[in-house]
Amino acid sequence: MRRYFRRAPWEHGTTGLIGLGLAMLMQPWSIDVYSYGFTVLLAGVIGYTIAGKLPQA
Question: pTM here?
Answer without folding.
Answer: 0.88
